[in-house]
Specification:
The protein is mainly α. The chain has helices spanning 2-7, 12-26, 30-48, 52-57, 62-73, 79-93, 98-131, 133-142, 148-164, 169-184.
């Protein structure tokens, strides 16, 4: 009979053990809560640091948008700025931040894409200067709007500037010409 009592589902000690197990799964430590608070505050700081055009693309409710606008006005060297960022972090903890993080990710990818395009333009300029006609031919094949004579002229001018240690005027002009022509194409 004692064996039946220990294994019976009506045993109050077993019920308490089952309840504790489900509570443990929902338990979040204080350290974890602090880590999440810091992440939300950093997210808020990222939003505050964006340009006006980028802030406009972030999906925020009116209360959060007002808090971000105030933080952008407050002097960053003052304690009020820190407190405003903490407040923004608190507001973000109360909201689903998935859409905000997605919008920030899109902004970051735009920035990376523009950097990659800029580096491609720099590589094209260097190849025109270093390789000469073969690089010019590849550029013209990719972008027929280029003027072969103008590219050759810039290439010669840049080489002369480098020989004389002169200011890189033609170097900059070549980059601008390549950039303008590629963007127009």
């Amino acid at each position: 009979m004692s064996d039946q009592k220990q294994n019976s589902p009506q045993d109050p000690y077993l019920e308490g053990a089952k309840a504790t197990t489900s509570e443990d799964e929902d338990f979040v430590s204080k350290t974890e809560l602090k880590r999440q608070a810091k992440e939300h505050q950093k997210l808020g700081e990222t939003i505050v640091g964006l340009t006006d055009a980028h802030v406009a693309t972030i999906p925020m409710d009116e209360e959060l948008a007002d808090a971000v606008a105030i933080a952008r006005i407050v002097n960053k060297k003052k304690d009020g700025y820190r407190r405003q960022l903490q407040f923004i972090g608190k507001l973000l903890r109360q909201r689903d931040t998935h859409d905000i993080e997605e919008a920030l990710s899109k902004i970051a990818h735009q920035h990376q894409a523009s950097n990659a395009a800029f580096h491609q333009l720099e590589k094209a300029r260097e190849s025109v200067i270093e390789e000469g006609d073969p690089a010019i031919q590849r550029l013209i094949e990719d972008y027929p709007a280029f003027d072969r004579q103008k590219l050759r002229q810039f290439s010669r001018q840049v080489k002369k500037e480098r020989e004389k240690n002169a200011p890189p005027k033609a170097f900059r002009e070549l980059f601008q010409y390549i950039k303008d022509t590629v963007q127009d194409s």
